[in-house]
Each structure stands twice: as C-alpha cells, then as structure tokens.
Design goal:
A hairpin with a 2-residue loop joins strand 9 and strand 10. The protein is elongated, with a radius of gyration of 22 Å. By secondary structure, it is of the alpha/beta class. The chain has 6 helices and 11 strands. 29% of the residues lie in helices and 27% in strands. The protein folds into 2 domains: 123 residues, 3-Layer(aba) Sandwich (Rossmann fold); 84 residues, Regulator of K+ conductance, C-terminal domain (Alpha-Beta Plaits).
C-alpha cells in the first residue's frame, strides 16, 4: 500500500483517485476550484480531499507530501503540474513523480532534470498510437512499456502469413521480440519452439519498437 498525492481534482484526478482507493492505497487529492471541490467531496471518502493549490509548498506540506510515495500532477495547466512535481522532488524528496502534459509543445520541459519521472502526454501518445496502427497493419498495441520503447502487442495470424502452418522454431522472428501467448479458439496456448501457428491464432508478444514491423510481416498477410 502506497501513499499517493494527486494534484488536480478534475475528471482525470477523480478517476485516478477512485482507482487507487479501490486498490487499497492511501490517497490525498488537492484541488483549488470550489466547483470541483464540491464534486470531489461527493465522489470520494471524507479526508481525501484537500483545498488549495498543488503548486503551493505550504499546501503540499499540509497534505503530508514528505511521507508520500508518489505525487501525480494531473491538472489541466502544464505550469501547475511542472511546479508541483518539481517541488515534490527537490523540496520534499518524493521518490516518484508523474505529470500530465496538456500541451504537447511543452513536453520537452517535463524531464527528470525538472523533477518529473514520467510525463503523460495524452495527445502525443494518441498521435503515436494512431501512426503505429497505420504502419503496422493488423497489429494492435495493448500496452506501452519502458517509456514507449517496448510494447505488448496482439496480432491475428493471417491465412497467407509466413507464420501460418509453421512451427515457431522455423520462423525468423526479430531478436528483440518474445512471443508471450497464443489464444486459439478461446484457449490459452503457451508458445514454445515446436508450437505450430495457425491462421486465426491471436498472438500476444513483447516487442521493441525497432522490431515491430518485422514481427507484423511474419504474422500478417
């Protein structure tokens, strides 16, 4: 169980708080707008909500930032998110900081040197995912790992694919690719060298971005 401070009580912050509370974590959420505060008090348990600005060191201190495990700044204002994470890291020594990037053009500022461990650029991530979906044909990205360099992907084996009817050991999969599972007719198949891939198999793999197109060519038509 971790103590998490969320700066920003809009829809993103409220949803995040609910998820973390459901996972058993201790959550405090900071919000300064009266309308949002009323909604938060109705949506979350008493004691979770703190009135004030997450860019104010005194408010962070009163919220218990010094013993927090994580601070996530998810307001709709990039300046507030950057100030909150910088204060959390350099003034209060919070081990992990996460910031929402509202304007993709500001993404270059959200770096570890500025106190941000992980920056969530929603617009940039969406654009990247769309571009990848277009370039990788039938491959679907399920989850991004390691700051986007590696992904868990899923692709159905096409009837005319090089992989159809072949044993895994016979196929020249990229080096930076690991087949994790094969879903066949609703059943889970743990892949190994002698597993024969059939048309219609849903292959789940962990792949580096440099190897994604090579994997897609083997599984697609």
């Amino acid at each position: 169980m971790k103590k998490v401070i969320i700066v920003g009580g809009g829809k993103v912050g409220t949803h995040l708080a609910r998820l973390l509370l459901a996972g058993g974590h201790r959550v405090r959420i900071i919000e300064r707008h009266p309308g949002e505060l009323r909604t938060l008090h109705e949506a979350l348990p008493s004691g979770c909500v703190v009135a004030g600005s997450g860019a104010d060191p005194a408010v962070l201190e009163a919220t218990g930032v010094r013993d927090a495990d994580v601070l996530a700044a998810v307001t709709g204002t990039d300046a507030t998110n950057l100030v909150a994470t910088s204060l959390a890291r350099f003034e209060f020594g919070v081990p992990r900081t996460i910031a929402r990037v509202k304007d993709p053009g500001n993404g270059w500022m959200f770096t570890p040197a500025m106190g941000v461990d992980a920056a969530v650029n929603q617009a940039g991530l969406m654009a990247q995912l769309i571009a990848e979906e277009m370039s990788l044909g039938g491959m679907t990205t399920l989850l991004k790992l390691s700051k986007g360099d590696c992904s868990i992907v899923e692709q159905t084996v096409h009837p005319q694919a090089p992989a159809a009817g072949k044993r895994i050991v016979e196929l020249a999969f990229p080096a930076e690719c690991i087949l994790v599972a094969v879903l066949r007719g609703g059943q889970l198949v743990i892949p190994h060298g002698e597993t024969v891939l059939a048309a219609g198999d849903e292959v789940i793999a962990l792949v580096h971005k440099s190897a994604a197109q090579g994997l897609s060519r083997i599984l697609g038509g």
